[in-house]
Amino acid sequence: MTGHDGQPPPDPRPDGRREDQQHLDDQLHQHDQQHDDRHDTQTQKENDMGTESWVIAAPQQIEVGEVTSLVVGLTNGAIEVVSDPARESGASIDVTEVGPRPLHVTSHAGELRVAYDFAGVEGVVDRVRGLKDKDTATVRVVLPAHLPVKIATARAAVAVTGTRADVSVTTADGAVTVDDTVGVLAVKSAAGRVAATAHEGDVRVSTASGRVEVGGRLGRVTVSTVTGDVVVEARETTPLVTAKTVSGDVTLRLGQGAGVNLKARAVTGKVVLDGAPLPSTQSRTTSVDHSDGTSGAYVSASSVSGNLTVSRA
């Protein structure tokens, strides 16, 4: 039908849209409103091409299946990783505290990632402005013992218990506590205290001012500090220990009767074996080479002013 001028008559509806288009617009508006409502809830879950993701804005518990490794990235708060010998697969995540910025949990191809998302302009701007206090979370993850763990934090404390795979921790100022673990333990820290007890395997620790304590059935132990003291206790094994400090003291405690082969270099530091100072071959600096003539622990220590103390009891 046309008007007197040959043109289609005007649509009698004010907006000029057809009824089906109006219905579609209403549906889209309703969908957007539902999406906003879901975003405001404490957890938003997505599943896309084998990837599961959660956005955690409030305390929440999550069960994840088919996990082969764990990656954690936190700023403030705490992360606790506990192995469950009875668990063969999957992981349980318990978020007991989360700050204004939501925490992201992602599971893809077996990798479970618990971390803050700094993608996008807002994340970059917040980092530049130093607004990282918003990134606070307290998280506990329970997983099978055989899964490797990789953790990075700024100030969040780290605790790992019972794992039977390699553990890697990087932190600026967070305390690191590791207990009853097997595998390679690697820790890099600026100022946080590092304590590993009942560990079986190799240990690598690098820190500026944090105290380092390592104990267990140790293999190769490598520790580097600036001012932090180092304590290594290996009463059941004869490890290979390499320690470098500027002013931190190094203490090695071995089992009774263990053989000791040591090389120590320092500017003013002293070397003591079983309570007796060892003489230096140099007059102005400390240079000690000692061997019991038997296989045993091998110790290489270098320092500016730190002391080396080895005891067997």
Give a verbal description of the structure.
Residues 12-48 have a biased composition (Basic and acidic residues). Residues 1-48, 277-300 are annotated as: Disordered. The chain has 313 residues and is mainly beta. The protein has two domains: 41-183, no CATH class; 223-313, no CATH class. It has helices at residues 19-40, 120-129, and strands spanning 43-48, 51-56, 60-64, 69-74, 76-83, 91-98, 103-108, 111-115, 136-143, 149-153, 157-161, 167-171, 176-179, 185-189, 194-206, 212-224, 230-234, 240-244, 250-254, 260-266, 271-273, 276-277, 286-291, 297-303, 308-312.
For this entry, give a set of tags.
313 residues; mainly beta; 2 helices
Question: Can you give me a brief rundown of this structure?
Answer:
The protein has 313 residues and is mostly beta strands. Helices cover 10% and strands 49% of the residues. The protein is elongated and about 65 Å long.
Radius of gyration: 29 Å
Approximately how much helix is present in the residues? 10-25%
Q: What percent strand?
A: over 45%
Terminal Cα span = 107 Å
Count of separate DSSP helical elements: 2
The average pLDDT score comes to 85
* Element-level helix/strand string: HEEEEEEEEHEEEEEEEEEEEEEEEEE
Number of strands: 25
- Output the structural class: mainly beta
The dominant shape is elongated
Largest sheet, described in full?
25 strands, mixed
Number of discrete domains: 2
Unreliable stretches: 11-18, 31-44, 118-129
